[in-house]
Design brief:
two-stranded antiparallel ribbon, 3% strand, 2 domains, 59% helix
Length: 131
């Protein structure tokens, strides 16, 4: 069994989850890099999926960001592409409000409530596009 693209997608997914959590906590790449003993450029490479994060480094990151180690793979589907052009099944925005929204939305356990919130956001986005 070949894992090539699937593993690359997982590396990107994990990097995006690091960026999402770091940004939502207001921690800079510089600060995270200092705590890990690496440069901010290395943190950028981790977050962009350019460099794979070792298990021990990911464990350190989980402690620094205050999440379980499993947080970084939660929601990954081996059959789902991260990006499909205009739409994305999982995409991290660089603005803080989007990151906070996604972070808090992921904590909602009730599927019906999640669906209602998603429908509301879709409706508001479409109204915004029409203006």
């Amino acid at each position: 069994m070949e894992y090539g693209q699937e593993v690359a997608n997982l590396d990107s997914f994990i990097g995006q989850k690091v960026k999402l959590k770091r940004s939502s906590l207001g921690i800079s790449q510089v600060k995270l890099g200092e705590k890990l003993g690496v440069s901010f450029q290395q943190v950028q490479k981790y977050e962009n999926g350019k460099n794979r994060i070792s298990a021990s480094t990911l464990f350190q990151i989980s402690k620094i960001l205050g999440v379980n180690f499993s947080y970084f793979v939660e929601g990954f589907s081996r059959n789902a592409a991260l990006h499909d052009g205009k739409h994305a099944s999982y995409q991290v925005s660089s603005d803080k409000e989007s990151n906070l929204l996604l972070d808090y939305f992921s904590k909602i356990q009730d599927p019906a409530l999640r669906k209602q919130i998603l429908e509301l956001v879709i409706k508001m986005a479409s109204l915004s596009e029409n203006n």
